[in-house]
Amino acid sequence: MNVPSAWPLLLALGGAAAASALAVAWDRPPTPVRDDPGAALARVRRPALDHGAFFAAPLEDGPAVTRACLRCHPDAAREVMATGHWTWGAHEVALPGADGPRPFGKRNSINNFCISIAANWPRCTSCHAGYGWRDGTFFDHAGPEQVDCLVCHDRSGQYEKDPAGAGLPAPGVDLLAAARSVGRPTRSNCGACHFAGGGGDAVKHGDLDGTLHHPPERVDVHMGRHDLSCVDCHRTAAHRIAGQIMPPAGVASSGGSGAGHPAAIGRVACTDCHAARPHGHARLDAHLDAVACETCHVPAVALDAPTKTSWDWSQAGADPAQVAARDPEVAADPHLYAKAKGRFTYAQALRPEYRWYDGTARRMLPGEPVDLARTVEVAVPRGDVGDPAARITPFKVHRGKQPADAEHRWLLTPKTFGPGGYWTDFDWDRALRLGAEASGLAYSGRFVWVETEMAWPLHHMVQRRERALGCAECHGPDGRMPWEALGYPADPAEAGGRRRLGLLRAAAGSVAGGGDAADAGAGGRR
Q: Residue 273: which residues within 8 A CB-CB, separation 6 or more?
């Protein structure tokens, strides 16, 4: 945050008297600078062992590579099989009709992009850390040799999975070269799946796309200037990779080993490397009680590659030429429509939407009844202005239109890929019947289209302080913050923060409020 840029704003808000009053707080002695992220990073990086001498004979398939790896790393596959990257069910939640908690994750959730993996396994599981997940019986028979070591550890640059091959290596991949190259995961290893989530580059997240393979500093300071890899922050213990995006409230973390290790609690935070009060300036540090680091340091995403902001499945099935004839935007940009998928919108240099976030989410569970007349919240952050644990956080919000059962009143899972799928026959009724058989979720035979919304927190494309938001970019008449929607009666630079306004609820074992940036004249409380 750029403090000097706020002085014109202060004069505009309250004249010289207001500026003078706030200067008292801003002129306090700076807090000691204890920020030394490099020290934390030095404890993480380890040199990789050259594996070239350990592989000589040709390797016939992916499982053959894994069997060779297990000769020296006998526990590795079982460790992977205990993680969310293998199970795709990292959280234990109570599913409708189930006896006790069940795993919940990609494996059995619904989204508003490609909707669900059920009935679409061979296409979706091309990003699974395993080989051969073709149908719902995979976990009944899969063993250690089905773990894909290369998807995370290949350094040859030519390993890739067949995009419709249930996780198997693509034809033509030199498995021997890949096995001999293995080492510490790179951004490209992680990005092969995570940069292309939702069906293509930059589609899902906005802050993750192909530009991060080799980003300049203007895209992300951590990866561009300091060449950090994903695993520098998403640290790993026993193959459990720290990091959870929008976990449901009240669930156990995906776990890890070692008290205090980030993977042990399943989360990643800026304070894993940075000081809790890193700015050396009391006014800026006070904002951290109400504002997430990313709010100032991720002012925009999709900086080079446009990200998808809406997906309307209800328009699928029409001839693209006919759509272009009646839709000038599609005529100008054919990427906005696909017969198999419907109508899209995209945005570049996307300004985030801001919401309170306590680190957990309200997630739509399969079979959960919905109000068909209202926007269905598939995944939205939990937290509000009165929650001491919540922070104002930037999100990309993706809006969709997808099928729901007209009688059962829940979101449906269509079969899109393969024989009988919508992409083959363009028959929604058949696609929904096949999807219901695969998912176990009943389909009445009648469906309607409903509006949906999913929010994704933004943590990447981090900017240096010189490119972070300045005070006037949030506060004042031209500020980007929707203060009333966030629960404030007015801009807290004028009205005061949530502690001063009495909006905070008491946290367990503490006094409501604690410190509050607004008590010094502006800002809020996390």
A: 37, 40, 41, 233
Q: How far apart are CA 135 and CA 193, in angstroms?
A: 20
Cβ–Cβ under 8 Å, residues 246 and 381: yes
Q: What is the pLDDT of residues 9-56, one digit of tens each?
A: 333 433 333 333 343 344 445 555 568 888 877 666 777 899 999 999
User: Which residue, among 353, 445, 454, has the nearest Cα to 400 in the 3D structure?
Assistant: 454
How does pLDDT run across 423-475, given as a tens digit for each residue?
999 999 999 999 999 999 999 999 999 999 999 999 999 999 999 999 999 99
Task: List Cβ neighbours of 418 (8 Å cut-off, separation of 6 or more).
Answer: 119, 120, 122, 123, 424
Tokens standing for residue 347: 């945005």
pLDDT at position 377 over 90: yes
Round to whole Å and give the CA distance between 110 and 491.
37
| Residue 320, amino acid | P
Element (H, E) at 491: none
Rg of the chain in Å (alpha carbons): 25
Residue 58 corresponds to which amino acid?
P
SS3 (DSSP) at 438 = helix
Distance separating alpha carbons of residues 113 and 258, to the nearest angstrom: 36
Q: Alpha carbon of 34 to those of 13, 21, 280, 288, 367: distances in Å? A: 33, 28, 8, 16, 49
* Alpha carbons 85 and 273: distance in angstroms, whole number: 24
Which among 515, 474, 421 is positioned nearest to 297, based on CA atoms?
474
Q: What does the CA dihedral 129, 252, 135, 402 come to, rounded to 10 degrees? A: -110
